[in-house]
Design goal:
71% of the residues lie in helices and 0% in strands.
Length: 212
């Protein structure tokens, strides 16, 4: 199957087999691209400004925008957002919206469908999928929901079984890793080299919440 613009970032992410969630990699890339996009030329596009004025930014993404050290573009965005807040009681009382979350979420939803499309029709991608040893719980749940909606009754069980196998294997590895980490606090095992198990808590958190 010929590689297309929608499949390139997915294939690039799934080619990496480092024990991290490939969809989290896509998520981080989309987020970083959106942060750069919103502070760049796009901020002068009327349709983008309408959306940022209406939605604003969540605390996490506002903090990320602040770290970009592009204060003038951010000040311009916030100025017109504040004016929009003063003009709409509905917006004033709703602090749950975020332009970055909204845009990234839309792209991710499309990626879920594209991952399923590649899994279903491209053997080379199926091999990349099978080589992955870790998918975080949030993205596992999102892919499972997409599979139920988009795959056939024959295809969905096979994909869900693969998701389940990866999740159970991850849980088993991380449970063992947590046990080894906890054991290291016992004086009888003082000085034992933890190796990769030093990251047991961080890895468990990444599984439960995703690594944004």
């Amino acid at each position: 199957m010929k590689e297309t613009i929608y499949s390139i970032p997915i294939n690039e992410s799934f080619e990496i087999t480092d024990g991290q969630c490939p969809v989290c990699r896509l998520h981080r890339r989309l987020t970083e691209d959106t942060l750069e996009y919103v502070l760049g030329a796009a901020m002068m596009e009327p349709d983008v400004r309408q959306r940022t004025n209406a939605l604003g930014f969540c605390p996490e993404h506002l903090a990320a925008l602040m770290q970009k050290q592009k204060r003038l573009p951010l000040a311009l965005l916030l100025e017109t957002h504040f004016k929009a807040l003063t003009e709409s009681e509905k917006r004033l009382f709703d602090a749950s919206t975020c332009y970055v979350c909204d845009r990234v979420g839309g792209f991710l939803k499309a990626y879920y469908g594209n991952i399923l499309y590649l899994w279903r029709g491209e053997e080379s991608f199926r091999r990349k999928w099978n080589a992955q040893t870790f998918l975080c719980r949030p993205h596992t749940a999102a892919l499972a929901a997409a599979a139920r909606d988009e795959l056939s009754k024959k295809e969905a069980p096979a994909f869900l079984a693969s998701l389940r196998e990866k999740s159970i294997a991850s849980l088993s590895r991380m449970t063992e890793s947590l046990e080894i980490f906890i054991r290291s606090f016992d004086h009888r095992f003082a000085g034992e080299d933890l190796g990769e198990h030093k990251q047991a808590v961080q890895n468990a958190a990444a599984f439960l919440c995703g690594a944004k």
